[in-house]
Amino acid sequence: MDTKPDVVLHSTGSFFDRVYPQIMRAIRAGADVVSTCETLAWLGTGTQTSRSSLIIMREAMT
């Protein structure tokens, strides 16, 4: 990402495993991310991979 956004409104897909790279790119650029990804909102129906990815995302933000 060439820019340094403060906030990214992410609405490119419904499945977290498919949009994870996009979200991580924004986080690594230092942006807060607001996403419409359904499986991100409802992790109870997600996969173990989704839960593991969230742990990685949390660690990337610290």
What does this structure look like?
This protein has a two-stranded parallel sheet. It has one domain (7-61). It is 50% helix and 13% strand. Strand 1, helix 1 and strand 2 form a beta-alpha-beta unit. With 62 residues, the chain is α+β, with helices and mostly antiparallel strands. The protein has helices at 16-28, 38-41, 48-61, and strands at 7-10, 32-35. The longest helix has 14 residues, at 48-61.
* Largest beta-sheet characterization: 2 strands, parallel
Show unreliable segments: none
Rg value: 11 Å
Identify the strand order in the major beta sheet. Answer: 1-2
How many domains in all? 1
Binned, the helix content reads 40-55%
Q: On the 0-100 scale, what is the average pLDDT? A: 79
Number of helices: 3
Structure summary, number of beta strands: 2
For the record, give the distance between the C-alpha atoms at the N and C termini, rounded to a whole number.
19 Å
H/E element order: EHEHH
Structural class: alpha+beta
Shape: globular
Kindly estimate the percentage of residues that lie in beta strands according to DSSP. Answer: 5-15%
Question: How would you describe this structure in keywords?
Answer:
62 residues; alpha+beta; 3 helices
Offer a concise description of the structure.
The protein is an alpha+beta fold and 62 residues long. It is 50% helix and 13% strand.
Layout of secondary structure:
Elements: E1 7-10, H1 16-28, E2 32-35, H2 38-41, H3 48-61
Parallel strand pairs: 1-2
